[in-house]
Amino acid sequence: MRWTGIFPATAVAILLCFGAANAQDVEGSADHPLVPRYEGSEIVKYETVSFTEYPLLTGPLEGGGIEANPESVLELEGALTRITYRAPAERSVLEVFRNYEQALAAAGFKPLFACDEAECGSAYDFANFAERDRSMDIWGDKRSHRYLSARLTRGEGDVYVSLYVTKNASGGPSKDRSMIQLDIIELEPMERNMVVVEATAMEQDLTADGRVAIYGILFDFDSDAISPESRPQLDEVGKLLTDNPDLDVLVVGHTDAQGALDYNRDLSERRAASVVEALVGDYGVAAERLTPVGVGMAAPVASNRTEEGRALNRRVELVERPAEG
């Protein structure tokens, strides 16, 4: 399923479907300030955790659950807010889902993965994982469910959303109602002190070690597009190569261990090629001096079991290439 865009004319109408707190909400609960509720919904479960691990679905789940589908899970760490809403009667899963989809897009969230029914993979595995428990509050009809994961990039720390909408298949007050499981994960802001490595420091590392790791060249999620905030670091790399015209380098892309081996290798090579393209096009470095290489997850410098370690493993390295002949 593609993430649907939002048009100015429909934005107001869509967002009007979201409303204020309901008197029937469970005690102590509240909407998250970044994501409004669907109008008339009630909070039936509410939980907050100040810091925890959270596996976010970014792909379909086939048989075997997350253990058998590691490429479909992004491991996060941060503050978690879990809210279970019961939508008003006669509101379909699709109607509720589309409203949330548009509201998240309007708030600046970018899609990671979206699916409905068969597109989500194994109905049993996916529903069990998305609901996280088999309470009667959710107890979804596996023939009618939709899911969306998305990310909001912000300076004080990225925010991820897991949205699962399904039709309740049990009895009681939730019978035949659309149920919404909204999980919001707020990451700790990444320390960016001394992220930009100056040209002189890179030259010293290349002289001493033959390589230098660079963390100031950033990419959009799951993309080889270089982020605009990478410009200061690219300026320094351009200066290094301009001041040292005899220096030839391998530009080596590295990823963390999230996702499949071959996919990460290809992604890292495409990212390395993007850096080479920027250095050639924007700084006039001769293309024959730069060789893009992608090694994916094959050369970690830290554990991939934590977000901090994965952040260290996502990098670009310059490796001195000896002159041929």
Structure description:
The chain is α+β, with helices and mostly antiparallel strands. The chain folds into two domains: 8-187, Protein Transport Mog1p, Chain A, CATH 3.40.1000; 199-320, 60s Ribosomal Protein L30, Chain: A (2-Layer Sandwich). 26% of the residues lie in helices and 30% in strands. The protein has helices at 8-15, 93-106, 123-131, 199-209, 231-243, 261-283, 307-313; strands spanning 18-19, 37-38, 42-57, 73-86, 110-116, 140-152, 159-168, 178-187, 211-214, 249-254, 290-296, 315-320. A six-stranded antiparallel beta sheet has the order 3-4-8-7-6-5. Strands 9-12-10-11 form a four-stranded mixed beta sheet. Helix 4 (199-209) packs across helix 5 and helix 5 crosses helix 6 (261-283). The longest helix is centred in the last third of the chain and has 23 residues, at 261-283. Mean pLDDT is 84; it is low at 1-16 and 190-194.
Describe the largest sheet. 6 strands, antiparallel
Summarize model confidence as the mean pLDDT: 84
CATH class of the largest domain: Alpha Beta
Query: Share of helix among residues?
Result: 25-40%
Number of alpha- plus pi-helical segments: 7
Shape: elongated
Low-pLDDT parts are: 1-16, 190-194
What amount of the residues lies in strands? 25-35%
Strand order of the largest sheet: 3-4-8-7-6-5
The first-to-last residue Cα distance is 53 Å
